[in-house]
Design goal:
The complex is a heterodimer. Chain A has 2 domains: about 150 residues, no CATH class; about 180 residues, no CATH class. In chain A, about 60% of the residues lie in helices and about 10% in strands. Chain A has a 5-stranded mixed sheet, with no helix packed on it. Chain B has a single domain, classed as P-loop containing nucleotide triphosphate hydrolases (Rossmann fold, 3-Layer(aba) Sandwich), CATH 3.40.50.300. Helix content of chain B is about 35%, strand content about 30%. Chain B is built from 7 helices and 10 strands. In chain B, the strands form 2 sheets. A 6-stranded mixed sheet of chain B has the order 6-7-8-3-9-10, with helices on both faces. In chain B, strands 2-1-4-5 form a 4-stranded antiparallel sheet, covered by helices on one side. The radius of gyration of chain B is 17 Å and the shape is globular. Chain B starts with a strand and ends with a strand. The chains are: A alpha+beta, B alpha/beta. Chains A and B meet through α1 and α7 of A and α2, α3 and α4 of B.
Chain lengths: ~350, ~220
């Protein structure tokens, strides 16, 4: 295994590359994980609603946000940007204005396929709608008629969905990772029973909560916390990138010297390419394992400190699996690194 | 024997080596000349590191620049040994790992490598430093490590480009003495230097001027 022995020697002294790869991997893991969380929680927030409401009509109270509506593929039925829009729902002989914060009403049709929501198509009169529990006038029950006065349409109440917000919290809803959805979440919370959601938010964000004004402050506080976390994230990313560039320079110098020596002493071009492919593969794997390990250790630590804002970042993710996973990945990376180092000593040392 | 026939190397608008013909049968040969005279370029072409613009480099009749690359790789690994002015060691490797590099490329077994590394380090007087990182050695020790690496595969020709250029006189003399010992054991050493004193310690001094031989003196 002459190639293998050479590979082991190559592996031995370039351990800084592990750190370079690890930093890259950590950076990528953060980016990918943030995207994953954002997508997952966005869908997690609405998927349950929509799955349950498949084939039904859904009334959903939210800020009028065309970009968000487009992202979520929610059709806008009755809302207008910049307008104060008042919608009055009437049911069971009672009326309720739902728009006292300038929010509009997004009305969407839920089709069997999540991707096939039809934008802007109002529901047919008489079809079922879903309402937030918080918006329900007392005494309204499933199957009752609900009238949207401005639209002059009457629907049947098919269900309520306040529980979905709690589902989102259980999934680890995160300000830093959910910047695009903060408004959606904030607004979604409006339609949740406030007494269930506010304490969680107040604890996590330290926002003032007192009645309607408190709710508004809470949303602002949420966006502020998300903003700072985003700044922190990008600072970390920038630092990681700088270190990675530095390590890449090392990487290039190291292999430039190696290439010269290997070629001068007769290594063929083909074997050189194979050798480097093997080295990069091994370091990439080790580095990625290290990066993932660091990342999950970070997750675990922040979870352990969950009384603070960083705890909120990772929501209600249980720390134990994270510590276990982080530990396992660390052990793997350490074992792999040690194996590479120790096996590199074989040969050449009488 | 190395035979150079009408060897020419041009770089853009400059001719570094100009239709140079030469034979090196063996022994301790020095190529000397002023800076820019083409001596290092000539050594690189002889060492199969730099292709000539025209002409031939033959080793015992075989024109290796006309041969497939695999043959040149093999020749660099087993027929030739190289020593550079800046040592060209891998500073993060141990002394032993540096010396075993050509042996690894040659596909020697672990036992063979260990034995040969010990032998080479004993030859250059570095026994006991096997586990020390090359980057922590003195200049003289690094150059001796480089010599040990160069002779690891028992090359017929050892090509040394200004091997004493970075060394003080004591260490330089020691390197030249090592070369002399190698010659006694049958290795041909071709050393490029601009140091007249070092040149006088060899068996033959070939002087270059503007890429051509301007003197060939046997001592």
């Amino acid at each position: 295994m002459k190639g293998f022995d050479l590979w082991k020697l190559m592996m031995k002294r370039a351990l800084p590359l592990v750190w370079a790869c690890g930093i890259f991997a950590l950076l990528f893991a953060l980016v990918f994980f943030s995207g994953f969380v954002r997508r997952d929680l966005t869908e997690g927030l609405y998927r349950d609603i929509l799955e349950e409401a498949e084939g039904e009509q859904l009334v959903f109270s939210c800020d009028y946000d065309p970009a968000l509506a487009q992202e979520l593929e929610i059709g806008v039925y009755a809302s207008a940007e910049g307008e104060t829009y008042n919608v009055t729902l009437s049911a069971g002989g009672q009326s309720l204005e739902v728009d006292r914060y300038g929010r509009g009403l997004i009305l969407c049709r839920v089709l069997p396929a999540w991707q096939a929501l039809v934008e802007g198509e109002p529901p047919d009169e008489g079809e079922g709608i879903w309402l937030s529990e918080a918006l329900l006038p007392a005494g309204l029950e499933i199957g009752d008629e609900v009238r949207i006065e401005e639209a002059g349409q009457v629907f049947r109440l098919a269900g309520t969905f306040s529980g979905e917000i709690r589902s989102a919290l259980r999934l680890g809803f995160s300000p830093s990772f959910l910047l695009a959805e903060d408004r959606a979440f904030a607004e979604a919370s409006v339609i949740c029973p406030a007494e269930e959601v506010f304490p969680l938010w107040q604890s996590a964000l330290g926002a003032r909560v007192s009645g309607d004004d408190g709710l508004f402050d809470l949303c602002e506080g949420y966006a502020l916390a998300g903003g700072w976390l985003e700044v922190l994230f990008w600072l970390i990313a920038a630092a990681a990138l700088l270190v990675a560039v530095r390590m890449t320079a090392f990487f290039l110098r190291h292999f430039a010297r190696q290439t010269f020596l290997l070629r001068v002493f007769g290594l063929s071009r083909g074997r050189l390419i194979l050798l480097y492919a093997g080295v990069l593969l091994a370091y990439g794997a080790l580095g990625f394992a290290l990066g993932v390990g660091l990342f999950y250790a970070f997750v675990g630590i922040t979870e352990a400190l969950s009384s603070g804002i960083m705890g909120m970042v990772f929501g209600e993710i249980s720390p134990l699996p994270m510590f276990a996973l982080g530990g396992a990945v660390f052990a793997l990376a350490a074992a792999g690194t040690a194996a590479a180092v120790l096996s590199g000593r074989e040969g050449g040392q009488p | 024997m190395i035979r150079l026939t009408e060897l020419t190397k041009k770089f853009a608008d400059k001719t570094a080596v100009d239709r140079l013909s030469l034979e090196v049968e063996g022994g301790f040969v020095c190529i000397t000349g002023r800076s820019g005279s083409g001596k290092s370029t000539l050594l690189k072409m002889m060492g199969l590191m730099l292709p000539p613009t025209s002409g031939q480099v033959t080793f015992d009749g075989a024109d290796l620049w006309a041969a497939p690359e695999a043959e040149r790789n093999r020749a660099r690994n087993t027929l030739l040994g190289f020593v550079f002015q800046d040592y060209a060691l891998e500073p993060h490797y141990t002394v032993a790992e540096n010396v075993e590099l050509p042996l690894l490329i040659a596909g020697r077994t672990g036992a063979e490598r260990r034995a040969r590394v010990a032998e080479c380090l004993a030859f250059v007087g570095l026994s006991g430093l096997e586990r020390q990182r090359a980057g922590t050695l003195s200049g003289g020790e690094q150059q001796r490590t480089a010599i040990a690496r160069a002779i690891a595969n028992r090359p017929a020709f050892l090509l040394a480009d200004e091997p004493c250029g970075n060394l003080d006189k004591e260490n330089g003399d020691r390197v030249v003495e090592l070369f002399r010992s190698l010659v006694r054991e049958g290795t041909s050493v071709i050393m490029v230097t601009h140091n007249e004193e070092d040149a006088r310690k060899t068996d033959r001094v070939i002087r270059l001027l503007d890429g051509r031989v301007c003197g060939d003196e046997r001592l």
